[in-house]
Amino acid sequence: MKKTAIITGASRGIGKAIAEALAKEGYHLALFCHKNKDLLQNLAEALSNEYHIQVYTYCGDIADSDFTIASCKDALEKLGQVDVLVNNAGKASIGLLTDMSVDDWDSMIGTNLSPLFYTSKVVVPAMVSKKSGNIINISSMWGTVGASCEVAYSATKGGVNSFTKALAKELAPNGISVNAIACGVVDTDMNSQLSPEEKSELAEEIPAGKFCLPEEIAQVVLSIINAPSYMTGQIIGVDGGYI
């Protein structure tokens, strides 16, 4: 039986790991990225060749509603259905709130929060029509407790969590699950601004004693997909015991 998924922010890091995990399970994929067109295309070709699946790629600004909505509609048409939507695309920024420009604030909201609305607006009607589906939003532990010098990032991820809980209540009667993964420190390019010494010090603060691997988040995604639809509206912490 055909299985399909849309994944945003899929060219590297967590999104790439999720794409690889779902491809291994036989999912046909629609993968989105912002600028890494070559990386995304190489990933798509590798997954298609290895797992004999269909993979469609879309490169553009996820914060652009016209691009995201049109691309999701095209992906839905090509895939025929969407069983899983993974909203993973995001960006981070470290610095004092008073040093942040209005444009930077708007960009953070536009990248981290608004796309959940754009993608869901397209995908939800198709899921409702077949009375099943999984929407998984990649969030952060800072969306739960907030982080100093990451006010905008924390605010967007807090919004992701509230979006998740509210949409879950809206879609539960239709058998559709909506959950979020509140990631801790994951070993991706998002943390590339940290020096080796800073990474080592940060790892020591985490009870698990290490950064999370993108592949571990991908395994949690698979666990959510395989869980009963009764598990919905949950913010699942994967932070090594950090908070």
TrEMBL record:
Family per record: Belongs to the short-chain dehydrogenases/reductases (SDR) family.
Matches recorded under Pfam families: adh_short
Gene3D superfamilies: NAD(P)-binding Rossmann-like Domain
MF-aspect GO terms: oxidoreductase activity
UniProt-listed SUPFAM superfamilies: NAD(P)-binding Rossmann-fold domains
PANTHER family: 3-OXOACYL-(ACYL-CARRIER-PROTEIN) REDUCTASE, 3-OXOACYL-[ACYL-CARRIER-PROTEIN] REDUCTASE FABG
Species this chain originates from: Pseudobutyrivibrio ruminis
Phylogenetic lineage: Bacteria, Bacillati, Bacillota, Clostridia, Lachnospirales
InterPro entries: NAD(P)-bd_dom_sf, Sc_DH/Rdtase_CS, SDR, SDR_fam
NCBIfam families attached to this UniProt entry: EF_P_mod_YmfI
The protein's name: 3-oxoacyl-ACP reductase
Keyword list, A-Z: Lipid metabolism, Oxidoreductase, Steroid metabolism
GO biological process: monocarboxylic acid metabolic process; steroid metabolic process
